[in-house]
Amino acid sequence: MTTSLLEHQPHPRTLPVGDRTRPAVARRRHGAGFWMVAFAFLVGMAFSTVPTPLYPLYEARDGFSTFTVTVVYATFAVGVVISLMLAGHISDWVGRKKILLPSLGLELAGALVYLSGASLPLLLAGRLVTGLGVGMLTATATAHLQELHTAHRPGASGQRFELVSTVANIGGLGVGPLVGGILAQFVGAPLRVPFLVFAVLLGLGMVAVALTPETVAEQMVKPAYRPQRVSADHGDRAGFLVAAASGFAAFAVFGMFTSIAAGFVGGTLHHPSRALAGLIVFVVFGAAAVAQTLTGRLSTAAKRRAGLLTQAVGLVVLLAGMRDANLPAFLAGGILSGIGAGVLFKAALGAVAAAAVPAKRSEALADLFLISYVGLSLPALGIGLATREVSTTTAMTWFTAVLLVMLGAVAALGRRADAGGPAVR
Questions:
Q1: Which of 116, 279, 347, 366 is in the most buried spot, having the most CB atoms within 10 Å?
Q2: What is the C-alpha end-to-end distance of the chain, expressed in Å?
Q3: Are residues 424 and 353 in the same domain?
Q4: CA dist 224 → 5, 10, 301 (Å)
Q5: Are 341 and 370 found together in one domain?
Q6: Total number of domains in the chain
Q7: What is the CATH number of the domain that holds 17?
Q8: What are phi and psi of 158, to 5 degrees?
Q9: Helix, strand, coil proportions of the chain in percent (round to 5)?
């Protein structure tokens, strides 16, 4: 059993931003900063999925196989995991902006790598650098949004923060393929223009963050640095394992869609439109974001059960659409899977946050994100490997069977955790 660095360091010293007596001008600055960080957060997450509808173009031009595409995609998830382990926790020491600005800078560097050429090594480098930026962005931007919301509306409900952070995070993952697909479909130079547009947007995002008030005072004496360590000891071991398996299963669906959906729609279904490919991925992530918002009042256990059932049904419908080469069924299955995955992951977040003691809550959530992003990459990479020997539909059949077994196991473990773990309930 490992011990996290967070056990040996002081809590982040937030600036006194929640005081109702603060001048109205200062509160307005934090209110404007809230929306500027939300914009930067959305742009950063959207850029990470811009290549999704473009992969078939790389396949056609350079002869990439489905396996190669999934390797390129998995490289992004590897970058996220590395970044979460190395830098996901240090904004508590140095301030939010000192992590947000480099994270967006890394993504901007990724855009410049894409623009410098389109060979496989450059694609891999671009995805890795982008993943490093996203790993630094997610937790830091979420924390900054919460603190800015509190500063702007002291004592108010956190519903606005929860809604905006969900839309920026999960919704942003859907916006990227939509914008990238439309630009690739209707503007020339489809492998350059989307990255040029997002390079400009990322630059604007950096300006927005630079103008935003800081909410964490930098520690003058910083603790000894150690990477984030993964542990299941977060108040309720059984509950954390259920949440971790839920996060893995939810992100596995997202990984599958963003790595192979565009190729399947353009190849097997013979719909080569880049805009359509981007729209399909956008709808799946959009459905997840909407479902997360609408189920906010459900208990953690109820969200988990709803997510498991909806994701299982969606996977079966999705597989039927792939086997019959039926676009409406494929899309319906994707939407149901996205809804289920979104709700399931929200249940996992709620369970971990409720079970962990306050002193280890950040550590617990970071561990959940690490495991979930492994789920984002490993199944997609496994499907890519399988397609070297069998068809994409056959590989998806295996993937669906394995994931349904995992969902069943999560359901069984969840019932036991609900019966024996009051903190999870």
A1: 347
A2: 25
A3: yes
A4: 9, 12, 38
A5: yes
A6: 2
A7: 1.20.1250.20
A8: -90, 10
A9: 75, 0, 20
3-state secondary structure of 64: coil
Residues 306 and 159 in one domain: no
Q: How many residues does the chain have?
A: 425
Spatial CB neighbours of 22, under 8 Å, sequence gap ≥ 6: 16, 151, 154
Q: Which of 206, 229, 252 is the last residue of a domain?
A: 229
Domain boundary among 182, 199, 229: 229
Same domain, 217 and 241: no
Query: Does residue 23 sit in the same domain as residue 96?
Result: yes
Say if residue 264 is in the same domain as residue 153. Answer: no
Residue 264: which domain range?
231-425
**DSSP of 255-290, one letter per residue?**
HHHHHHHHHHHHHTS----HHHHHHHHHHHHHHHHH
Distance CA 243, CA 308 (A): 12
> Tens-of-pLDDT digits for all 425 residues of the chain?
333 333 333 455 555 544 455 567 777 888 899 999 999 999 999 999 998 888 888 878 877 777 787 788 788 888 988 888 887 677 777 788 889 999 999 999 999 999 987 688 888 999 999 999 998 898 788 878 888 888 877 777 666 777 788 788 888 989 999 999 999 999 888 889 999 999 999 999 999 999 999 887 766 666 666 766 665 554 567 778 888 899 899 988 888 877 777 777 877 778 888 888 889 889 999 999 899 888 878 888 899 999 999 999 999 999 999 888 888 999 999 999 999 999 998 888 777 766 766 545 556 767 787 888 888 888 778 887 887 888 888 888 998 999 999 999 999 888 887 776 544 33
Backbone angles phi, psi at 228, to 5 degrees: -60, 135
335 & 347 share domain = yes
Judgement on whether residues 58 and 207 belong to the same structural domain of the protein = yes
Instruction: Tell which residue, 67, 159, 5, has the closest CA to residue 389.
Output: 67
Distances from the Cα of 324 to the Cαs of 264, 268, 281, 384, in angstroms?
12, 10, 20, 21
b/e sequence 257-276, b meaning 16+ C-beta within 10 Å: bbbbbbbbbbbeeeeebbbb
Q: Quick one: tokens of 214?
A: 């800081």
